[in-house]
Design brief:
Elements: E1 2-6, E2 9-16, E3 28-36, H1 43-48, H2 51-94, H3 100-119, H4 141-153
Antiparallel strand pairs: 1-2, 2-3
Length: about 150
């Protein structure tokens, strides 16, 4: 059995061995049926297939549909940083206009994004290290050097 993809159509073929000697003969392919990839498999086609062929077709369709989902997801992920940047800028401007329900829903979605990234092996990046705050009564010599340079320039 051969399965061919032609756009969104799936064509199922049965191959017969050549009747001529191998040097001259060509195999024959008979079309068992065609169907749309996003639709169900026709009952007539399922009846024409053996049990093993039905299993092979089911596995092939599962892999095919998963590859379509992954392709769609890649295009969505390619534009995700731009969408997130626009979301962040909109929140900076008008976060106070969100209702409590909308804000809660956003938090749930952000947690789902973080959880999914973590499961995929992308740990949360470490925050940039900030210089430690000076203890009370401690002098910051580097800050004083900058002040001295500014005074010297004047």
């Amino acid at each position: 059995m051969l399965i061919r993809e032609q756009g969104r159509l799936i064509k199922v073929l049965r191959v017969e061995p050549p009747t001529q000697p191998p040097t001259r003969g060509r195999r024959r392919e008979h079309v068992l049926g065609t169907f749309r990839a996003d639709g169900p498999i026709p009952a007539a086609l399922l009846d024409a297939l053996s049990r093993d062929e039905r299993k092979a077709l089911a596995r092939w369709l599962a892999v095919y549909r998963e590859s379509l989902r992954r392709t769609d997801a890649r295009t969505t992920l390619a534009t995700a940083p731009t969408h997130l940047e626009s979301l962040v800028s909109a929140l900076e401007v008008a976060a106070d206009t969100l209702s409590a329900v909308d804000a809660d829903q956003m938090w749930v979605q952000l947690q789902a994004i973080a959880r999914t990234l973590k499961r995929a092996g992308h740990p949360r990046p470490r925050a940039a290290r900030r210089p430690p705050a000076p203890l009370p009564g401690q002098q910051d010599f580097f800050d004083e050097c900058d002040e001295f340079e500014q005074l010297a320039e004047q």
